[in-house]
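Renewal narrative, Specific Aim 1. Our central claim is that a sequence can be written position by position from structural information alone. The example that follows is taken directly from our test logs and has not been curated for this report. It begins with the structure tokens describing the chain, in the order in which they were read.
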């Protein structure tokens, strides 16, 4: 299995509580340098006369005036470094929710993140209307166990109002030593009043891939986040499922619900695993090196067996790339809810050895040319989240042959009763997953009818 791209993409990212996740490799080959009024900078890096003539001199004078006023008249003395860093953060924060200035600690967090272990609550967040918005809780973390949901709004952190904070400030408040306690005030959609949730911080160890056999011949793979090893883990999971099912699979459910994204290369690799060629995803930006195309290799590890991809509003970024690629190539049926719509590319631009910019430089597009940004992926089959409750027995209409006196007995195979019990448990536990399995079974039956 191999995928190809026209040019290496430095980075793609999504903000996770306490860190920015998505680190396809080491810092890229693009750099940023300050060149104004510095005669020691080489000529190739120096500001050209044309660029200088385009500088908004009036606005720069305003900036200098504000800077001077703060230095002279603010109620307390402020260091130049803090003012300049604040100006840089504000400049980036005004662009879009994903561009940011990374100081030393944040830059280190970014590099640590894709190894799958970090401290915090285990929640992917963004900023909306001045509040922290929950994009998705990560599986088996304090946030997921506390019942936080996609779309929840965090309005207070330990009774401190979030309104007016930057996203980085809010994230810093939510960080802390494992074992310490934090209280979040949550607003949920609808008419529910705000409520408090108490969580205990923990070391978050994210196993990005889990798998199991749903029924004989039908496998299930859950990808909770795209880390650097996710492609290899998915391939291993498919091999394990094949081993549990006499060497072959009739169908697979790929669960990307509440998957906030992550490493671009892993999303491309997972898509490539199920495709036999063609475009997986491409990006478009202003700079030539932000225009990329990723192509699939010739191997399909399922040999054409049907796939259902489950998505919801917490499926973002890299998970939308996978769903969009498999949908456009008609390789999978996408089921669930409209995805988040995070279709922008963030490039990490190192400033020096300890700091960097995370700058939005391009947009993702699916193979058919659909933009993911602010639109997301529309499922082929919409499935609303709901709870399954079997009807209570209601007398005569529940009467069956087995209830009649002196009915003939039939010795049903043991595995049939076991499978029926497993199916009932699955439906009660996860209705959307049960529906995905039903679709796979239907496709398998149709395939046998069409190809006797």
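The sequence written for that structure reads:
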């Amino acid at each position: 299995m191999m995928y190809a791209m026209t040019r290496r993409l430095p980075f793609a990212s999504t903000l996770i509580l306490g860190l920015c996740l998505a680190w396809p490799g080491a810092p890229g080959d693009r750099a940023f340098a300050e060149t104004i009024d510095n005669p020691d900078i080489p000529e190739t890096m120096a500001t050209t006369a044309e660029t200088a003539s385009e500088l908004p001199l009036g606005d720069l004078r305003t900036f200098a005036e504000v800077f001077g006023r703060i230095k002279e008249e603010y109620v307390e003395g402020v260091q130049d470094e803090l003012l300049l860093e604040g100006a840089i953060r504000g400049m980036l924060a005004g662009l879009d929710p994903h561009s940011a200035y990374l100081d030393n600690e944040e830059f280190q967090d970014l590099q640590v993140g894709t190894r799958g272990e970090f401290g915090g609550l285990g929640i992917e967040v963004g900023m909306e209307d001045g509040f922290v918005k929950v994009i998705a809780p990560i599986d088996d973390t304090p946030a997921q166990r506390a019942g936080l949901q996609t779309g929840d709004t965090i309005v207070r952190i330990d009774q401190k109002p979030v309104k007016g904070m930057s996203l980085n400030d809010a994230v810093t408040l939510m960080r802390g030593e494992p074992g310490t306690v934090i209280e979040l005030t949550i607003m949920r959609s609808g008419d529910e009043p705000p409520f408090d949730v108490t969580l205990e911080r923990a070391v978050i160890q994210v196993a990005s891939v889990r798998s199991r056999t749903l029924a004989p011949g039908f496998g299930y793979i859950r990808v909770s986040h795209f880390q650097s090893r996710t492609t290899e883990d998915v391939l291993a999971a498919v091999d394990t499922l094949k081993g549990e099912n006499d060497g072959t699979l009739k169908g697979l459910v790929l669960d990307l619900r509440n998957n906030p994204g992550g490493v671009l290369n892993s999303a491309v690799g997972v898509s490539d695993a199920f495709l036999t060629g063609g475009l997986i995803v491409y990006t478009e930006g202003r700079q030539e090196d932000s225009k990329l195309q990723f192509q699939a290799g010739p191997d399909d590890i399922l040999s054409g067996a049907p796939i259902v991809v489950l998505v919801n509003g917490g499926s973002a970024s890299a998970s939308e790339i996978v769903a969009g690629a498999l949908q456009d190539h008609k390789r999978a049926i996408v089921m669930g809810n409209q995805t988040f719509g995070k279709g922008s590319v963030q490039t990490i631009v190192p400033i020096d050895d300890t700091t960097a910019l995370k700058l939005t430089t391009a947009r993702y597009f699916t193979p058919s040319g659909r933009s993911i940004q602010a639109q997301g992926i529309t499922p082929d089959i919409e499935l609303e989240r709901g709870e399954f409750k079997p009807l209570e027995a209601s007398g005569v209409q529940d009467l069956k042959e087995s209830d009649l006196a002196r009915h003939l007995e039939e010795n049903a195979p043991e595995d049939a009763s076991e499978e029926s019990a497993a199916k009932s448990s699955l439906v009660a536990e996860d209705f959307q997953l049960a529906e995905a399995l039903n679709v796979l079974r239907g496709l398998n039956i149709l395939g046998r009818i069409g190809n006797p």
